[in-house]
Specification:
mainly beta, 4-stranded antiparallel β-sheet, single chain, 11 strands
Length: 118
């Protein structure tokens, strides 16, 4: 079965950085659109950043200029570099994948907690 396994979450101070990784298996990674979502307590899950199979990227306005999404097709892994972290970035971060254009998740990872202390 499809597996998306996130890692790299943790506790960091305001202004710090973290890099999340999502290792995929049992999908055709090179033709998959990959994305990172997050969900804070009491809030809806929201798209943070996405990267298409061709490498085009899309970011939420709240993270533009601070977060960078990238992918390594050889390693079948997608990354989220998070810089200048703020307390409002605190959430569970989920990796997703789908075939085709756009970001309409077909598969989800289990999530990784990111906590930014003030």
């Amino acid at each position: 079965q499809v597996q998306l396994v996130e890692s790299g979450g943790g506790l960091v101070q305001t202004g710090g950085s973290l890099r999340l990784s999502c290792a995929a298996s049992r999908i055709i990674f090179r033709i998959s659109s990959m994305a990172w979502y997050r969900q804070a307590p009491g809030k809806q899950r929201e798209l943070v950043a996405g990267i298409s199979s061709s490498g085009s990227t899309n970011y939420a306005d709240t993270v533009k200029g601070r977060f960078i999404i990238s992918r390594d097709n050889a390693r079948e892994t997608v990354y989220l570099e998070m810089n200048s972290l703020k307390p409002e970035d605190t959430a569970v971060y989920y990796c997703s994948s789908n075939y085709g254009s756009g970001f309409t998740p077909q598969y989800w990872g289990q999530g990784t907690q990111v906590t930014v202390s003030s």
